[in-house]
Amino acid sequence: MAAHVQDVFMLFGDSITQEGWEPGHNAFGQRLTHVYARKLDVLNRGFSGYNTDWGIPVFEQCIAKTSDPSAPKIRVLAIWFGANDACILPSPQHVPLARFVANLKQMVGMVKSPASPRYSPTTRIILISPPPVDTFVRRAELQARDPPIALDRGFEVTQGYAEAVRDVAKEEDVAFVDVWTAVWEATGKDERSLSKFLSDGLHLNEQGYQLVYQELIKTIATKYPDVHYDNLGPTFPPWAEIDWENPSNSLYTVRKAD
Amino acid sequence: MAAHVQDVFMLFGDSITQEGWEPGHNAFGQRLTHVYARKLDVLNRGFSGYNTDWGIPVFEQCIAKTSDPSAPKIRVLAIWFGANDACILPSPQHVPLARFVANLKQMVGMVKSPASPRYSPTTRIILISPPPVDTFVRRAELQARDPPIALDRGFEVTQGYAEAVRDVAKEEDVAFVDVWTAVWEATGKDERSLSKFLSDGLHLNEQGYQLVYQELIKTIATKYPDVHYDNLGPTFPPWAEIDWENPSNSLYTVRKAD
Questions:
Q1: Residue A172 to residue A154: CA distance in whole angstroms
Q2: What is the mean pLDDT of residues B5-12?
Q3: Is A203 noted as a catalytic residue in this protein?
């Protein structure tokens, strides 16, 4: 059985989260696992294809109740949806914008509301907006399938969902990482240049994840410096700090990241 | 609080484990996190500079007692030491070969012995041998330090520790991943070619971790196929399998990887 020796950095979202450790991408999950090594356990809670409607029941199961003293504390919680919610009807992934907003608020409230059984006032919440869609590449990719599929996402539609994430973050007073704007501005606001940052018109490539990682760490440094990796001590001591004559003196105290 | 929704794949070892998510390396920890996404949580329990003497007290704290019903089950446990234990005196990292063997047996016994408070008969244990040392590169690297340091590891010494890991695995009847031999054979048994697989004479580069990952997955496939990622179902269903009309029907049951 794995003991709870470290607190958690949870990444909750869709495929763009799930692929955060993809080989060759130096993606954000991998890089967080690297910089938070010996400090926080970075958990992949990305669910390919999921929207917020399907995410909520899973979220409820991934976040333990406050009354469970054995569960590791979530120090940082990133919530990243919108890429699938913004699908156009008749896609089964479509969630209307107003319900998307309500769903995000429900997730945040489950952790942030004192009345919630999952209330965790020390958890630092970060909302992330979906990247822009490259409809040229996405349309071609769907047309090439057998049978061909009509374009299922729109550039402005996803932009609207990204702006909604920003508004929810502001209203709920939690941190916001604006991946949509970071990627869009990096292209010089040119949809034809989105392929520099997206692998298939929808998902991020190495350059795209590089932007995500930079923006995320910048946000942590400014909004939540207490959970920046530079400000967390290692759970167990660096080897040079071990009492080599009497190792037990220095090694038998689990120093929770705090 | 993070709920226990998935079982664990724990990587326990020294810096060569800790660096398993290093950017640019496509290292084994990252790749395991990727292929086990939505199945097992891969935990980085690598401790740079540690030998087995220091590893044991930490191991005891990372492995929960069997009597703790709330802790996630460890489905796979990789134990990877030797690179530091094999240091030459007067290095404080040196652990005599006989004690190294005893320490490894103690770790395995803590999980495998029915008398142990941490007994977990369903945990699949894998021992891994350290890679060969490139003494040419290592000596030059240590000589370039200020002040210069004498060579702290020997090629044949580390080879002896690697063989000891193999012998312990056989005696304890647990799986063995022979990184030492895999890397050595890949060089054509030429120490001057080790730099193809090592970054600094001691730690693995991308090519080295590629070999580790291949050998590890091959070992799981042959010795412990029940915990190969292809044979574990996702904890939560793929999105196409969700009951879109009544999502709760398919999403409210946590299906533990089994």
A1: 27
A2: 96
A3: yes
